[in-house]
Each structure stands twice: as structure tokens, then as C-alpha cells.
Design goal:
767 residues; disordered N terminus
């Protein structure tokens, strides 16, 4: 009897110690849901009672679970406090998707007035089992003086076809794959903000056209989790992010979640409203303190822990982005190394609280600079940049931006690119420049297709989502990490036997502009060869300076040309100064062939676009000297098109591509045709009678397909066996480009080439 009493006392002490009842915290039995599946997250309401103080401060109360999966070591899963808000379900649109009355700005219901509290609040735990099989889970809550621990619960996750977590590929560090080994090549758009239902509608349209990746911002007007008070998390903003990520889960999208934007640390933008500022009750006297102040760093780490607890289990979360364009914050020019160290510290902390160890990155605005300190630390899993080239060829500019990031031997992403919004709508209403950039970047060794901006006022309004479709279809079966892709080699462009020789347009796109003394801001002479190469002792100048505002920079450009047939020399006007009148003259063999004055009619603006257009000068066959000069007061921005100049037309083809172990991808572009030459009235003829010749292919049969890059339609299929390493592929006539895929078949036996006579392919003019 005495022994039984003693046993009951001991058991009671054990229960009291495990539950923490004697110390004021109580954890009941975990109520796990039924039907838990591998790869699918589930949420558990934690039966935690007792006063733990500030629920958003882990030093006041820390709640976490230890999960022991079937294989590997235990996982620490942080818990989070939530007040549940709900939004009334919107009516379905005609297309079956959500609708919204959000404003044209895309910022929508910033006040969150449509979201209502459900009355439900408390501690929660979200977990995503990555393995099938039996799991054990136990939750512990702890304050500085109290603790409680639940009894261990068990569940079994049933097997499911889950890709896992997005990772840098172990097979090729230039690309991405899921932890299951499934390759992933991101194709998508920035859809950074909007009222949540409207944002979901944008994403649904993107996914329907082949998109699988997007980028979301957390900022004062979108998911403003910590914008009212430092260390306090807005539960409406949290619910809105829950809503959008759940929609991304259903659409099968991966998300780059951007946690801060540069304007939050700019005096001219949002610093005065930033809760980290001393004036708002925060710890920071200046914007620089955000990166150096101990209290600010601690607050930011607390926010990272909350984000990891609430959202890391989402199947759609692909990577964390600590900052958008951190190089544009006020302190960056003065403490670049300090900011790089801050990024390294925060990325390491984020991995310590994110049980799934999602990829971590940040972004910069200036792709033309080398952010050596920022990218030197390997804690940045992927490198990325943004690029806004004005009005230039987006295919050329995209490729150059990605080349700048190649040295870091990590996945390279161009996560923002595009024109000014008005320029995009004016120059490229059909989205041809988007297609150029998508294909050039994807076949230049990037880890993802470049991501355009202006999702709402350009892409959605003009319904340009379809520009994703061709690339998505072309690449859907490509194992990028497994191919060990390298730049395309061993291929040449040739004229098909019997094809008529027709000269093609040549676009001369200047790349240099400055208002300071430079070699190109002087009179210069260039020789344009028949194959399109340009010889000269300085780069072409994009700005032609006048004779008054900057007389020392006055820079007439002389071109020695040789036209194979009668054609045109065209000056493309894309911007004109509005500080003084501008005057363009074109002289052919010392005679004025074109003269136009662009008057200063609105001195209140610095740049005017109303004079944009093409100044065409007829030029007869043969050799000529053409001089272009600005005899006006200020500058003018130009490019040049030599119409019917390049012979043979094969020189007008730009090739982008990748060669892999068993796959070759190529995209042929017409150098003389871009979205802006067409918009300025210079039409190019389709390139015809052209083929590709591979010279050093490994032996064996190759499946060959020719694709329309705009639609993803297969125009022709054939099987060929390389003869002495050679295969010739005829191309259809093209203006907007044509794509080719070669896949080596793993079969024995020789196959007879069907390219002895070119297959019939449709002629494609313009769309």
C-alpha cells in the first residue's frame, strides 16, 4: 500500500514537470489531423494555456516542436502566434478565377478592411513532412521562468509525388532542382503586389500560359507584416500572405518572397514611416543603424523567425529574398561591407530557424557593377540583378547583364527587367521585346528566364501572358542540371542550296552615352563591312551632342558604307532634349540628304518623345560616306538601320544556345528586327533560305525539332544521323526568331537522315 502511494506521487510529479502546471504553463494533448501526406503541410492548434508575455518575442515565450522523421536527425519547427482573419469569398470570374475591384495601381485594399477577425486566436504549428512513413512530434513552450512540454504524438505520412524543397543543384551549381532531384527552370513574371484576390487573378493567368515562378514583395503597401510597430506583426497582412501563398500552392507556382524594399531605408521615401526609426519608437537614429544597431538586428531576426514558423512549410515558397535593390538604400554607398556582413548574418540565422533551409538571396539594381562584397559570401545561394536598358534590344542587354554575374559560379537570375512603363506600352505593345529577353536569357546559361516588371499596367492590360508560352513548352522536358550545359559551339549559319540572295537589314545599336568627355564624344569615323561588322577606333555614340549646350562634346558620326543594292540609311530617333532646339542632318557624299529641326516647345520637361521616329535617306548601290550630325543646341538619342545592306543574309542571324550531354538548344534571332525598329516604322523582311550546320556532333541518331518561339508550336520534326559529325537543319523563313532542339537518342542502329531534301516548312511572316 505504501509502495503504491509512493508510485502515484512520483507519477504525479513527472506529469507536473512535463506539463509545467506547477509553473503556470500548460500544454494539452496534440490533436493531429487525419490523412497527413508527404509533401503537404498541415497546421496544428497548440493547446497551450498560461501567460507567456509578448507572443512575438521569442525571449518572452518560445514555442517549438521537435519532429523525428523516419530518416535523418530531428527537425526543430518553430511555433507562431496567430489571430485568424478571413476575407469573404469573391465571385468567380467568367474564366473560373477570382475577381476583384482593386484599383489600377494594384495596391487595392491596403487598409485590410475586407478582412474580418474570425475570433480564433492562439498558438499554431505548421509542418510539412518531406518523407513518407512514421513520425514523432513533441512540443515545448518556454518562458524565462516557466516551461511546458506535451506528450509525444505520432503520425504516419502517406507517400505522395512531392518534388520537395527548391535547392541549388548538386549536379550543376548553375541551376536549380528540388530536393527530390526533379529539375526546375523558373519561368514567370514579377507580380509583386496587388489586393490579394486581384494578385491571385494575375497569378492564375500567368500559370495558365506556362508560368511556374513569381516574386512577391513585403512592403508598406503589400503584406506589411511589421510596419505599424517594430516587433509587432500585423495579423491582417499575415492572413493576406497566407491567402496568396495557398493560391500559389494550388497553381503549382514557386515564389521568391522579398522581405524588404529599398525605399524603407531611404529618407526620400518611407524611412519616416519605418517603425525601426527612432521617431516611430524604433531603435534606429539613422538608416545606417538598421544594419549596425544590435536592437534592430534582434528585431529583424525575430521577424525572420516568425516568417519561417508561419510560411516555411508552404510548398510554394521557393526562396527568401532579404532585400529588393539593397544597393539603392541610403547607407549602401557608405557601408557596403557592413551591409554584406549583415546579409551573411541574417541568412545564417534564417537557415537556423527555417527547418527546410530554403534558398536565401538578395537583389541589386545595378547589374553593370560588381557587388563583390555582397556576392562573395556563399551564404547568398543565388545571385541576381535588375536591368532596365531604356529602349535598347532586350535580347542583347539581357545576355550582357547575365554575363556580369557568371564569375560567381552560382545560379544567375535576372529578376527584374524592362522598359519604362510608357515606353513599353508605346514601343512594344505586342510584347516582342519580352519574347526576346525570355529566350536570350534562358539560352545564355541563366538559372531562370528573365522576369519582366509592369505586370499590371502593361502585361495584364495588354494581355501579354502568352509571351511565356513558347518558352515554357520548349523547355518543359529539359533536365538543365543533368545536361551540364555550356555555351553553344560547333554550329554555323549557312545559305541553303538554291536560295535566293537577298540583302537583310542591319541594326547598329550604340551602347555608349555620356555628358562628360569621352572617346565617343568626338567626331568619329566607322567602316561598316558587308557582313555587318563595324570597324572604328571608338564605340558608337548613342547621344549626338549639339553645338551649344555641350560644344566640346559635339560628335558627328561618319560611316563608310557599301550597299549591295539600292537601300536606305535610317536614323532612329528615340529621345530628344527639351532644353534647347535640336537639328539633325544626314549628308551622303557631302550633300545634305536629310535635315530636320526639333523645336523646344515645352521647356518644363527635360526629355520629349513626340519626335520619335525614323529618318530615312535613300542610298544607291555602291560605296558612300554618310555623316550624321546634330547642329542644334542640345542632345538627341539615336540608333541606325542600314536597310537592305547585309549580304549574305546569314550575317543577320544572331544565335543563342546551349550544348549539353545529350541535348542542344538553339534560338536564331533576326539582328535587323526588334520591337522598337518595327514600332518606329522600319519593317524588316523575313530571313529566308537559311539553315544551321552542326560540324562536330557525336555519332548516333538525333531527334530534331524546329519550333515557333512565340507559340511553342513544333513546325517540323525529323531524325538524323551525323555524317562525319555533321548535320544540316533548314530553317523556315522567320522574322520573330526560330528555335531548334536536338536530342540524342539512346538507341542502337543507324538511321537514315531525312534531311537529304529539306522538309516542307511553313513560311512565317509577322504576327
Amino acid at each position: 500500500m505504501r509502495l503504491q502511494t509512493y508510485s502515484r506521487i512520483c507519477l504525479g510529479l513527472v506529469v507536473a514537470l512535463c506539463s509545467g502546471q506547477a509553473e503556470g504553463l500548460r500544454l494539452g494533448v496534440l490533436d493531429l489531423p487525419e490523412g497527413i501526406r508527404q509533401g503537404q503541410p498541415f497546421t496544428v492548434r497548440l493547446p497551450l494555456e498560461g501567460d507567456g508575455g509578448d507572443p512575438f518575442d521569442p525571449e518572452a515565450i518560445r514555442v517549438e516542436a521537435i519532429v523525428r522523421p523516419p530518416c535523418g536527425g530531428p527537425m526543430m519547427i518553430p511555433g507562431y502566434y496567430a489571430e485568424i482573419y478571413e476575407r469573404p469569398s469573391p465571385p468567380a470570374s467568367a474564366a473560373g478565377g477570382p475577381t476583384s475591384s482593386a484599383s489600377d495601381t494594384g495596391q487595392g485594399d491596403k487598409s485590410g478592411s475586407l478582412w474580418k477577425p474570425s475570433g480564433e486566436k492562439g498558438w499554431r504549428l505548421r509542418f510539412r513532412p518531406l518523407e513518407a512513413g512514421p513520425h514523432r512530434i513533441q512540443v515545448r513552450a518556454e518562458t524565462p521562468t516557466h516551461w511546458a512540454q506535451s506528450a509525444e504524438a505520432r503520425f504516419t505520412a502517406t507517400p505522395a509525388n512531392s518534388p520537395g524543397i527548391l535547392r541549388v543543384s548538386s549536379r550543376d551549381p548553375n541551376y536549380l532542382e528540388f530536393s527530390s532531384g526533379r529539375p526546375f527552370f523558373p519561368i514567370g513574371l514579377n507580380v509583386c503586389w496587388a489586393e490579394p484576390v486581384q494578385l491571385s487573378a494575375y497569378l492564375q493567368k500567368m500559370a495558365a500560359r506556362g508560368g511556374n515562378f513569381t516574386r512577391l514583395w513585403m512592403c508598406p503597401w503589400n503584406f506589411p507584416l511589421e510596419w505599424k510597430k517594430a516587433g509587432e506583426y500585423d495579423q491582417v497582412a499575415a492572413a493576406q500572405l497566407d491567402f496568396v501563398l495557398a493560391h500559389c500552392d494550388r497553381l503549382g507556382l514557386q515564389v521568391m518572397l522579398c522581405l524588404d524594399y529599398h525605399g524603407a531605408l531611404r529618407q526620400a521615401e518611407s524611412w519616416a514611416q519605418n517603425p525601426y526609426a527612432r521617431a516611430r519608437g524604433g531603435p534606429c537614429i539613422s538608416t545606417r543603424d538598421f544594419f549596425s544597431n544590435t536592437g534592430a538586428r534582434k528585431l529583424y531576426q525575430n521577424r525572420l523567425r516568425y516568417l519561417a514558423a508561419r510560411y516555411a512549410a508552404s510548398p510554394s515558397l521557393g526562396m527568401w529574398e532579404l532585400f529588393n535593390e539593397v544597393d539603392l538604400t541610403d547607407p549602401y554607398p557608405f557601408c557596403e561591407r557592413e551591409i554584406a556582413r549583415w546579409h551573411a548574418r541574417m541568412s545564417r540565422y534564417l537557415r537556423s530557424v527555417d527547418p527546410y533551409r530554403h534558398l536565401v538571396t538578395t537583389s541589386v539594381a545595378r547589374a553593370h557593377t560588381e557587388e563583390e562584397h555582397l556576392w562573395a559570401d556563399r551564404d547568398m545561394d543565388v545571385v541576381q540583378a535588375h536591368r532596365y536598358p531604356g529602349w535598347r534590344s532586350l535580347s542583347v542587354d539581357t545576355a550582357r547583364a547575365l554575363d556580369l554575374l557568371q564569375r560567381y559560379r552560382r545560379p544567375r537570375l535576372l529578376t527584374e527587367f524592362g522598359l519604362d512603363r510608357d515606353a513599353a506600352r508605346s514601343f512594344d505593345p505586342r510584347g516582342e521585346g519580352l519574347l526576346e529577353a525570355f529566350w536570350a536569357g534562358s539560352l545564355q546559361g541563366a538559372a531562370a528566364a528573365p522576369m519582366p516588371w509592369w505586370w499590371d499596367s502593361y502585361i495584364d492590360e495588354l494581355d501579354l501572358y502568352h509571351r511565356l508560352t513558347g518558352l515554357a513548352r520548349f523547355l518543359q522536358d529539359i533536365d538543365f542540371p543533368g545536361e551540364s550545359f555550356r555555351p553553344l559551339t560547333g554550329v554555323s549559319v549557312e545559305t541553303l542550296p538554291g536560295a535566293a540572295a537577298r540583302p537583310a537589314n542591319l541594326l547598329l545599336q550604340p551602347e555608349q552615352s555620356s555628358f562628360e568627355p569621352a572617346s565617343f564624344n568626338q567626331p568619329r569615323r566607322f567602316r561598316v563591312l558587308p557582313d555587318g561588322r563595324v570597324e572604328g577606333d571608338a564605340p558608337l555614340a548613342e547621344l549626338l551632342h549639339g553645338t551649344k549646350a555641350h560644344p566640346s562634346l559635339h560628335n558627328p558620326q561618319s560611316f563608310e558604307v557599301e550597299y549591295p543594292a539600292d537601300g536606305f540609311f535610317t536614323v532612329l530617333i528615340t529621345e530628344v532634349s527639351n532644353w534647347a532646339s535640336t537639328e539633325v542632318q544626314v549628308l551622303v557624299d557631302s550633300r545634305v540628304a536629310f535635315h530636320r529641326l526639333f523645336p523646344d516647345e515645352d521647356p518644363g520637361r527635360g526629355v520629349q518623345y513626340r519626335f520619335n521616329g525614323a529618318c530615312r535617306v535613300p542610298v544607291s548601290a555602291g560605296r558612300h560616306t554618310i555623316v550624321v550630325k546634330n547642329e542644334g543646341g542640345d542632345w538627341i538619342r539615336v540608333a541606325y538601320v542600314l536597310e537592305s545592306y547585309v549580304a549574305p543574309a546569314t550575317s543577320a542571324v544572331a544565335l543563342y544556345g546551349l550544348s549539353g550531354k545529350s541535348t542542344i538548344l538553339a534560338w536564331a534571332r533576326h539582328r535587323g528586327h526588334t520591337y522598337y525598329t518595327r514600332s518606329l516604322g522600319v519593317e524588316a523582311a523575313p530571313l529566308d533560305g537559311i539553315g544551321l550546320r552542326w560540324k562536330r556532333l557525336p555519332p548516333g541518331p538525333w531527334d530534331i525539332s524546329v519550333w515557333d518561339p512565340a507559340t511553342g508550336e513544333v513546325l517540323a520534326r525529323a531524325t538524323a544521323t551525323a555524317v562525319n559529325g555533321e548535320v544540316r537543319i533548314p530553317l523556315p523563313a522567320f522574322l520573330d526568331g526560330v528555335a531548334v532542339k536536338l536530342v540524342r537518342r539512346d538507341v542502337s542502329g543507324d538511321l537514315v537522315s531525312r534531311f537529304g531534301s529539306p522538309p516542307e516548312l511553313p513560311n512565317r511572316e509577322t504576327r
